[in-house]
Design goal:
Elements lengths: L1 H9 L5 H15 L29 E9 L2 H16 L5 E4 L8 H9 L3 E4 L12 H17 L4 E2 L18 E2 L21 E3 L8 E3 L7 H7 L6 H13 L2 E5 L5 E2 L10 E2 H14 L4 E3 L2 H20 L1
Parallel strand pairs: 1-2, 1-8, 1-11, 2-3, 4-5, 5-7, 9-10
Antiparallel strand pairs: 6-7
Length: 312
């Protein structure tokens, strides 16, 4: 925690190219040591107790999410929405309320087209969890945006998290964890490709946790410089075989839509489109495609049913 705090205090003064170089070196150093658990952790496939499967008896579930990091990403959201809609998909867009101007018109457009809007931290400055006092102060503002946007979900910036503190938020689900991702700053994974419940603590209600289960686009295409979505496909096939939840996080900030040479932190939109096409055609009618809020509601109902059965 001390090194993390030191890094985020110094980050504004570190040139972006240097930041990327340091992160790439870190991945190259760590990757061989974690080859047995990334991108697939073979021990994360344990099904929940009394598991009866996904709605409609589908083989696996599919959830698409987007964290919008900057004003640049905000301006690309409609392009990403149209790409997904054209291929028959829907997703959630998580916005940072106080880092850039979040357009009410954009939020309305997304909702009217069957997409979802969530909250992605407050400032995206790496300081949300630096102290309990700071988190409580920011949680009050985050709850304001959750209510104003009629959101039910939250994701922390940079996947920083304290699942106990997150109970302060008025949410139905959180999506700040992952099954396995040793390259994240807070690198401890939850070790499952299924949702799970963070229980009430006696004073504040719990919520459903939705871990992402495919590597993030930034890791694959910006840091590792992958030129194809093969790692995504490989992990998707494994999760489909195990009957789990495929949840991916793609940032519009890093997607290049105009076909020009991608900038330093961009990858071609075609890579994401290729992945969606792979899902759609290889697994036609085999997956339950749900918005995060719908999957969380399904999981909460399942948990409530299990609790009731135990009580009886």
């Amino acid at each position: 925690m001390f090194l993390q705090k030191l890094y985020y205090n110094a980050k504004p003064f570190i040139p972006r190219r240097v930041q990327l170089s340091l992160r790439r070196q870190r991945i190259r150093y760590k990757q061989p040591a974690y080859a047995n658990i990334w991108p697939i952790d073979p021990n994360s496939d344990q099904t929940p107790p009394n598991w009866r499967g996904w709605p409609g008896r589908k083989k696996f579930s599919l959830v698409l999410t987007h964290d919008v990091e900057s004003a640049n990403g905000h301006d690309k959201c409609e392009q990403l929405m149209r790409l997904e809609k054209r291929l028959g998909f829907r997703s959630s867009f998580n916005f940072v309320p106080e880092r850039y101007q979040v357009s009410a018109k954009l939020r309305k457009t997304l909702l009217e087209n069957g997409f979802e809007v969530g909250v992605h931290g407050l400032n995206h400055d790496g300081k949300l969890y630096q102290s309990r006092e700071e988190f409580v102060k920011r949680a009050e503002k985050i709850n304001h945006y959750i209510k104003d946007w009629q959101a039910t979900g939250f994701r922390s910036p940079a996947m920083h998290r304290n699942l106990d503190w997150i109970r302060d938020l008025n949410i139905e689900y959180d999506a700040s964890t992952f099954d396995t991702d040793p390259f994240e700053p807070q690198s401890d994974g939850v070790g499952t490709i299924f949702p799970f419940r963070v229980e009430d603590d006696g004073e504040k209600k719990g919520y459903i946790e939705l871990p992402y289960t495919l590597p993030q686009d930034f890791t694959l295409f910006i840091l590792m410089k992958e030129k194809t979505p093969e790692i995504w496909k490989e992990k998707l096939d494994w999760i489909a075989e195990k009957g789990g939840m495929v949840l991916v996080n793609v940032h519009p900030d890093y997607v290049n839509f105009d076909g020009s040479k991608p900038a330093l932190e961009e990858f071609p939109a075609q890579l994401y489109a290729e992945f969606l096409g792979y899902v759609k055609f290889k697994y036609f009618d085999q997956y339950w495609h749900a918005l995060p809020k719908d999957l969380a509601q399904f999981w909460a109902s399942r948990e409530a049913e299990q609790t009731l059965k135990k009580a009886i």
